[in-house]
Amino acid sequence: MGHKEPMTIASALRQIQDRKLILPAIQREYVWKPSQIIRVFDSVMRGYPVGSFLSWKVMPETVSQFKFYGFMTEYSAFDNRHNPVIDIPTDREVVAILDGQQRLTSLNIGLRGTYAYKNHGGWANKSWSYPERRLHLNLASEAPENELGLKYHFQFLTKKDVDASADDDSKKWLPVSEIFDAPDTAKLIQLLAKYEVGNDPKASALVSKLWEAVHKTASLHFYEEDDQDIERVLDIFVRVNSGGTVLSYSDLLLSIATAQWEGDARAAVHGLVDALNQTGNGFNFSRDTILKSGLMMADVGDIGFKVKNFTTANMSKLEANWDAMSKSLQIAVGLLSDFGLSDGSLTADSVLIPVAYYVHHRGLDHSYRQSPKSREDREALRSWVLRSLIVRGIWGSGLDTLLRDLREVIKKQGASAFPVVEIERAMSLRGKPLAVTDALVDDILNLSYGKARTFAVLAVLFPHVDTRHQFHVDHVFPASLLDRKALRRQKNEDGTARLSPEEIDDLLELRDRLPNLELLPGLENIGKSAKIPEEWLAAEYPSAHDRSAFLERNALPLSLPLSVDEYRKFFGERSAKLTTRIHNLLKSQSPDPSNTNASELVDLDEELSEGDDSD
């Protein structure tokens, strides 16, 4: 490995333009935020080093064994986040970047391209929420006071932003791209004249300083590897990329798959992830979850994040079965959506993996989601999924070990139905029982409005709810009547406050807790609004029989609170009813493994090597 002659930023970007400097398929995609780009340019202006770079000279005979990508220039968080695939002639050598892609791409975007990110409060699925922005340098003043220690005022702006500041004397914006487009001093002089800053010493000094940093200072230092052994290059890549933004499971797996698949692995995986995340009310599954699901369905023995598992044989299994696996994942995500889950209520993405494996093992199609014949099996699957999301720690440490155990149970016992009893027994043996304890009951009753686990709990406790339709988490006693201001307005006959500050705090603490929550159909919830529950119930269900049935279904006391004074009593009665229901509906399907030999539980070394999934 040798050290190359340092080069200027402009020289490196021209090589990117000419596709002489490219990215190998093992590189992750661009992930930097606008603030990180601005920090790089601030460093460039101050003459600070921006780090060294590692490149790989790829000879013609090696070019054909790899896929390559171009650098991102016009980045859009909406619809252009993936590097462009490029075809490299096999009769010439190229230089591929192994370390430094994020910094070089940031320089490329700042000096040659655009960055489109979502407006604050904009619609995530609308293109107009992502206006095109170019990097600008303020020639009128330095950066405002900031926590990042930035000296120079760089900012990504739309044309509308620039026009809006035309009359602001503290703002004079220079598009940074015009610095790159001025390769010599004659062009620099023209640039100063164009922005009428030639006679402004401070502004012209800023322009000249950035121009010098881009075109004259050889600030980029490259180390180059010329060995054509791909295994060696891969090892170097893994080592140098373990110090910054750590490679995720999917980064390495997808990179190697991209290099080894005959088709375009990156496009296949990205397309599938995007499609899955658009299911129902939307999810946010990562490539990690989807690719680990693939390894599960391909029956790869070890699904851990270890380089030795990323063999050509394993990648071939994934590619050969990708279409069938994709279909199974689509059905599995559809089932999770049918269970009422979405990004906001799915507390652990990893629950998808065993569901997808079950679907794949049985060869189920979309009819399984609706068929009356499969209703009982769907209910068993639904109950298990939701209960596993309620109990903390199920999808945390020891994940890969648990997944392999579940796979073995499904392979042996899941040919015709979801083997819930056997699965829960295997979970118990791993120290992850779906058992009801006093601690779990307290944990559930203390769940709050707006938390992800709250919907899953309510869906389990009230199985009459058809979660294929839209349901809202609703306050039984209206939250607006338990508002701090509303409670302070309550007075005694003599005009004194009826509630002390401590009593108000206590009521506010109880307001959003689970005993005051229920699931109502969306339109019904909107109609209920802030009505007193007893009054709403009488109007919505005129028949005494229907009212009684509603109260029974929702584990509500026979009398609902008519005022704040009755709220505490209601809260206590509802808590008792929910406690009984929790014990009845969350009852584990497996025996107590209390006599299990500890050595049969999770191996510590393996647990420490596995990733955590958020509860």
From TrEMBL:
Region: Disordered; residue ranges are 586-615
Q: Residue ranges under compositional bias (Acidic residues)?
A: 602-615
Sequence ranges of Polar residues compositional bias? 586-598
Which one Pfam family would you cite for this protein?
Answer: GmrSD_N
Please state every residue range assigned to the domain named GmrSD restriction endonucleases N-terminal.
16-255
Q: What is this protein called?
A: GmrSD restriction endonucleases N-terminal domain-containing protein
Source organism of this protein record? Arthrobacter alpinus
